[in-house]
Here is the input.
Amino acid sequence: MELKTKVDAEAGKQELFITRDFDLPVELVFRAYVEPDILEQWMGTKVLKLDCRRHGSFEFETTDPRGGKFRLNGTIHEFETNQKITRTFEMEGGPAGITLEFLEFQHLTNETSRLRIHTIFRSVSLRDELLKLPFAWGLSMAHNKLEEVMKGTQQR
Amino acid sequence: MELRRDVFQAIADPTRRAIITLVALQAMTPSAIAEHFDSTRQTISRHIRILTECDLLRQEHSGREIHYHLNALKMKEIADFIEPFRQMWDNRFNKLESIMKNYKRKK
Here is the structure.
């Protein structure tokens, strides 16, 4: 089965892609990102501030399973309704530092859409820290014998 | 899935990654592996031992020779480790999808 959500993290790069296809018109996916009460539900976070416009900013507060609270915040640089949001993102005290995120909302059909999040980290190690992977490497051996071996394994 | 921390330490090392890539092409003896590196035979043996202990490499005995080959299953387990991160986003987006489907119906 084709996965609805994909993560691509190539070895040695300070970027990460998350791609998701939705059975929803693009307008509804976009709305889920800009309306605080909806965003709170699916992100599992409290919205302290969400000012969706160029030069706007946001601040969320999340409670982890142990009851610890941490804040997420960022500034919005580009905002085009139903098309894109470009923003900085910081998990305060988190491992990944401050990242730059490009969210692209794409119309596929009237009932389906695609969201692509391109995240850029300050360094490769900060990205890998977030993924808890020293081996995003393991995923990036395209055109390599090793990948064929691994594909063979999956088919078995 | 249980993966010991040392598997990640094992593959975080560039020499050990190079060894894995070599051995992925064909099973090799320790000396054939060592020939590809400037490091001492001893150093390479230590890397091979660590990879074997993590079950990334396996030994094949043919006569007096030992060949090392790649345990592809173990490699796949490692590749799957990005899965929790993917899963987290998948869950969030599934939630988004179901919330917005209801939302649509209400309108």
